[in-house]
Amino acid sequence: MKLVIERTLFGFNDGIDSIKTLDDKFTPLSILMNRLLSDKYNGKKIKYLNLFFYESSEKLQKAYGKPYFLHYYGGQFTYKKVIDYDYFLKLDFYDQKLLIWKEAYDMLQFAAAELKNESLKISSDYAYRKGLEMKLCADYRMVETDVVLFGEQYRASIWVNFKEFNMEANFTLERNDEIVLKRHLETASNGMEFFLVMFRKIEQLDNAVVIKGVKDLIYLPLQIDFVKNGENIEFSELFLLS
């Protein structure tokens, strides 16, 4: 799926330097925000949307003469704002996500008013509420297609499933909206952007599927064979294609 906003980034700064571990930890949340904003956004061009959370206003005040920084030019959107790190770091991970989700929403609502961008106001309101409905789960299908195996229709998908410190690519086979088979493919650290685009296509080959991706990956293309066992379908083999 081509996204209207190419990338949303949440960045963390403790007043001294950026905190990359937090940047990576909250990458899934920024990906969720980006996807949900793109569902509704049709306003001024935004290529990169950057939201930075600062520990104190000292650096912002010195650099910009005010305790926040909001800038938009040529599709580049940047907003820097102070949050209460002492409170934030005491929270458990889910409550941290809730806090950042609300802060991001407030920042986008404020920016929408300042930039007179009604679409940003509408899309950020939708993204905020939809994200809460989803319990801030950022998992999504990277690739999906319908296949017919042994005369029956299935949905073959490659999911990105996010953990606190890493993300997984998992293959699933669904029938009637129920996952009947699942196989782990790869794991990577949160923040590795290449991981999110390396799988490109699922193709059917008889009673098998072939997973294709970017060139020069040593483990792609990958073929998954299936067998029928009574009423059930099962994995048979998984191997690289030469």
From TrEMBL:
Protein name as it appears in the record? Uncharacterized protein
Q: Which organism is it from?
A: Flavobacterium crocinum
